[in-house]
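dumping this here so i dont lose it again. seq + smiles for pyridoxal-5'-phosphate
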Amino acid sequence: MNYSSTTDKNNIVSSAQAISQGIAEDGGLFVPMEIPQYSKEDFQAMLALDYRARAKKVIADYLTDFTAEEVADCVDNAYTKEKFENENPTPIVSTKLNGVEMNILELWHGPTSAFKDMALQILPYFLTKSLAKKYKGKEAVILVATSGDTGKAALEGFKDVEGTKIIVFYPQNGVSPMQKCQMATQEGSNVDVCAIEGNFDDAQTGVKKIFTTQSVKEKLQANGKLFSSANSINWGRLLPQIVYYISAYCDLVNSGKIALGDEINVVVPTGNFGNILASYYAMLMGLPVRKFICASNANNVLTDFINTGVYDRQRKFYTTISPSMDILVSSNLERLLYIFSDGDDKKVKSYMTALKTEGKYEVDNTIKAKLSEKFFGGFCDEESTKQTIKALYEQSHYLSDTHTAVAVNVYEQYVTKTGDTTPVILASTASPYKFSKSVLSCIIPEEELCSSEFDMVEQMNKITGVAVPKPLAQLKNKTVRFTNVTAVEDMPEYVLKVLGVE
Ligand SMILES: *Cc1c(COP(=O)(O)O)cnc(C)c1O
């Protein structure tokens, strides 16, 4: 199977190349040129498999230039019981809110307690194997600019992976105390973390500049190294996310919640549109999904897009209590536009160009019709997010993080509006302990909150009895390893110094 670019159909590469490059030279995103098709019998056969075996099947069907042993090696290294505290890395908890049943798919049992682990634990293995096929013997240097979650998940994923080095930049005053501590105490012999004097945009612009600076590239090349990316538009990050929707469906059949062949709905708290798009790919493969419910916070650019067909990023940016969804340009949407326009690369390119130059675009009527047939878009403000956390906890003793709460709220809106109570898989994307202050203040009065983030973790555990994920509980006792701060203009020198190629 090959992959082509969303903005240039003639740019065709193998999966190893798509993963090594991350993004196409023409600026487009790589998409699979065919979609593997699963029949009812295929799903039947998968019922008896565990998560890892299901993952091996799905991944092997997409990465056809990997051997079965290579795929197995990636999966077995990524989804271990030690790393995910569970035989099944993505357990389902069925709960109820106001009489509506929800199957909550918990995607955050990995080492950093956020769903990004599902992709970033396996990407390093995809990447090193892809590079070995294409650029044998080179060391891959991963540069990441992060607003918090991605950086930590990438560090944990690449930690001590042979043939790789990872450097993460974060805004000095732009991450939570917990996130800062998670990164500053990072273990591993091939990792480096540095704060920058600037905001997240400065960090991102700085990293992009290093990627494209010829003199820096040449220095790396001369030393047997090359830059690579763990960015969320890499196909290697999307593919592992398809697996858990298929696996969750099998788990629901096995638990008797649904019968094989029954339709389900999917609800996803959305930012960059990667997670929900993965569920759409699962449907294209044969998973019976009736509706995709796309949940946004106050940054509701996707809600408007689904309802009107106009994508307009020129709007106020809100900083919310669900920060991983504070996004105005959802990059992975480009892949859906490609699918909905039946692979019209010129059309996709014209939309993306308009987005860059005018800040908005409007899709044609055919795409609008497809959008409203399969997608429901809704959003939830801060107050409703908090109310939802409180109500879910009080009614069902389920403690949800802020992002998951947005999804629960929008799902309630959907059921009220449509009366559609098709069994649902609702993606839960972070542990409530990752956002202890926001979550705790929904269930006890503000004045009773402990003062430090760490104390709040213990306080929430005492009050709710909900277990604290081990990696977060252990954080307090870890040694701080990284305290460097650099000016934005000094980022290239910093990278060369860390790599020892000044
Ligand atoms: C990244 C993230 C999201 C958004 O996921 P996308 O794939 O970007 O839509 C939602 N919740 C949490 C906790 C995240 O870290």
